[in-house]
Amino acid sequence: MPINDRFTLTPSDQQLAIDQHFIPIIHALSRFEDVQTTREQTKAIVNGDPTMNVSPEDQAIVLRLKRGLRTCLKSNIFGMIVQKR
C-alpha cells in the first residue's frame, strides 16, 4: 500500500527547514556518540568558531557528523532539493 505525501514543500521551504534544523540534528546525533557538548558548543564547532572545554575528540566527532549529514543531503538520500551554500 503506497503512502502518499501529506505535505508538499517548495524547494525554498525545504532549504529553510534544513537551515533551521541542521545544528539540532547534529547535536542530537552527537549524543549517540557520547559527545557531551551543549547546543551552543555544537553550533560553534559546526561554524568553525573557537570553543572552550571541548575535547579535540568531541570536536572531530561533531565535524564528522556535519560532513556525513552534508553528504546525505548532497546525494539526495532524503529526496530533498538542497542548494549549495
How is this fold's topology laid out?
Elements: H1 11-32, H2 39-47, H3 56-74
Helix pairs in contact: 1-2, 1-3
Word description of this protein:
With 85 residues, the chain is mostly helical. It has one domain (11-74). The protein is built from three helices and no strands. The longest helix has 22 residues, at 11-32. It starts with 10 loop residues before the first helix and ends in an 11-residue tail after the last helix.
Give a short summary of the structure.
The chain has 85 residues and is mainly alpha-helical. The protein has one domain.
Name some characteristics of this structure:
85 residues, mainly alpha, elongated
Q: Report the sheet with the most strands, covering strand number, pairing sense and barrel closure.
A: none
User: Portion of residues in helices?
Assistant: 55-70%
Q: What's the structural domain tally?
A: 1
General form = elongated
Uncertain runs are none
- Number of distinct helices: 3
Oligomer kind: single chain
Measure the end-to-end span: 37 Å
Indicate the proportion of strand residues: under 5%
From the helix content, strand content and strand pairing, which structural class follows? mainly alpha
Mean of all residue-level pLDDT scores: 88
Number of strands: 0
